């Protein structure tokens, strides 16, 4: 991976990440393709919108169809036909959240498949082995997640385990690369600690001291805590993260969350929100959200967003989208998802331009002013 900082304005950054499969300009939003597909879209849809990186999930792909099968088809790139970069989450969050009785210990996480109840065990090494077979460009390591709120003892234990597993993961990754495995794959560590400043500092300092990692993520946020707590935690945590490596905030979030965390020094984001909200009838625009379920849109001859240049807005009206949604037509899911993903990707491109042109503060102010006029 090559990483360069192209411009900064206060804490906001415009950077370039080069992987084996694409050049990624930040700030960047990564559409979530959990099952090696962004729901309702295919590789051509994503390429037409300029997506340079999408996210796949190790837990889901490990269980179905299996990483060995995906490897036979040329990894995620050959299997899905999306030629640009993939980032794969380690699957630790899903093992924790989707299994009724996941049990972490000092060496890994035991869990039952949400598909058939079969038992599985993730270790720092095994999740990397799966990701080597998937062939992702950026691999996330296994971390120990805890439900919040929780006791200080349990959060401290999660940090200790996460650091221990990070050391095991980076050692194993270097050993595998010496054998010619994962040579073009990059590895990110995940900072934990809830919203407690001392715990976040502890986790960040321990992990960032392991300098062989290619980037660092902030995990364990956007799990129900107040937005301001998330913003304060990110602002605090980034001060302990190296400037010369990518910073990734996992699972975030709304357009407002992206703008506020770019403002606090984050480079990379992912979230299911644009596609999940699209399927549920909520469409993001420059002027706020549109709930296509409302009766007021049944005869609306305007596009979702008159400032949007996506395929959906250039060709279809809100009345048509309203009809498709009410009729339960599958086409609605695709058209709505195209619009929402395009909105997120465009927002990131405009944010980058503003940072490069030294007008980030003005851009951020205009972002909120447009929403206030609706």
Which descriptors apply to this entry?
eight-stranded parallel β-sheet; TIM Barrel; 374 residues; alpha/beta; 2 domains; three-stranded antiparallel β-sheet; 16 strands
List the helices and strands and how they pair.
Elements: E1 2-9, E2 12-18, E3 23-25, E4 28-31, H1 43-48, E5 53-57, H2 58-63, H3 67-72, H4 75-80, E6 85-89, H5 92-97, E7 103-104, E8 109-112, E9 119-122, H6 124-134, E10 138-140, H7 152-178, E11 186-191, H8 197-208, E12 215-218, H9 227-238, E13 247-249, H10 255-262, E14 268-271, H11 273-279, E15 282-285, E16 288-291, H12 311-315, H13 318-327, H14 330-356, H15 360-373
Account of the protein in words:
The structure is a single chain. It is built from 15 helices and 16 strands. The protein folds into two domains: 269 residues, Queuine tRNA-ribosyltransferase-like (TIM Barrel, Alpha-Beta Barrel); 88 residues, no CATH class. The longest helix is centred in the middle third of the chain and has 27 residues. The protein has an eight-stranded parallel beta sheet with strand order 4-14-13-12-11-10-6-5. It is of the alpha/beta class.
């Amino acid at each position: 991976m090559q990483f360069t900082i192209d411009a900064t304005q206060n804490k906001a950054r415009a950077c370039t990440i080069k992987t084996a499969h694409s050049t990624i300009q930040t700030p960047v939003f990564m559409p979530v393709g959990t099952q090696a597909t962004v729901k309702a879209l295919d590789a051509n849809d994503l390429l037409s919108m300029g997506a340079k990186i999408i996210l796949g999930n190790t837990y889901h792909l490990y269980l179905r169809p299996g990483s060995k099968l995906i490897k036979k088809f040329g990894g995620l790139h050959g299997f899905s036909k999306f030629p640009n970069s993939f980032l794969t989450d380690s699957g630790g969050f899903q093992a924790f959240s989707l299994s009724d009785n996941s049990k972490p210990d000092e060496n890994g996480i035991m869990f039952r498949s949400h598909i058939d109840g079969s038992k599985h065990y993730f270790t720092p090494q095994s999740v990397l082995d799966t990701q080597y077979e998937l062939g992702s460009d950026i691999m996330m390591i296994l971390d120990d997640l805890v439900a919040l709120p929780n006791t200080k003892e349990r959060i401290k234990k999660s940090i200790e385990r996460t650091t221990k597993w990070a050391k095991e993961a980076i050692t194993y990754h270097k050993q595998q690369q010496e054998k010619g495995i994962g040579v073009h794959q990059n590895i990110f560590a995940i900072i934990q600690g809830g919203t407690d400043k001392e715990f976040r500092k502890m986790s960040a300092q321990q992990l960032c001291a392991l300098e062989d990692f290619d980037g660092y993520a902030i995990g364990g946020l956007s799990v129900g805590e107040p937005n301001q707590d998330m913003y304060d935690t990110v602002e605090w945590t980034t001060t302990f993260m190296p400037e010369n490596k990518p910073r990734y905030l996992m699972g975030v979030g709304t357009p407002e969350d992206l703008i506020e965390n770019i403002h606090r020094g984050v480079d990379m984001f992912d979230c299911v929100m644009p596609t999940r909200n699209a399927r549920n009838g909520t469409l993001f625009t420059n002027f706020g959200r549109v709930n296509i379920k409302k009766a007021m849109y049944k005869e609306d001859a305007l596009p979702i967003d008159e400032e949007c240049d996506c395929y959906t807005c250039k060709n279809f009206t809100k009345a048509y989208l309203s009809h498709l949604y009410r009729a339960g037509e599958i086409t609605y899911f695709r058209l709505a998802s195209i619009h929402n993903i395009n909105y997120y990707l465009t927002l990131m491109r405009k944010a980058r331009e503003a940072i490069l042109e030294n007008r980030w503060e003005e851009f951020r102010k205009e972002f909120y002013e447009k929403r206030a006029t609706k």
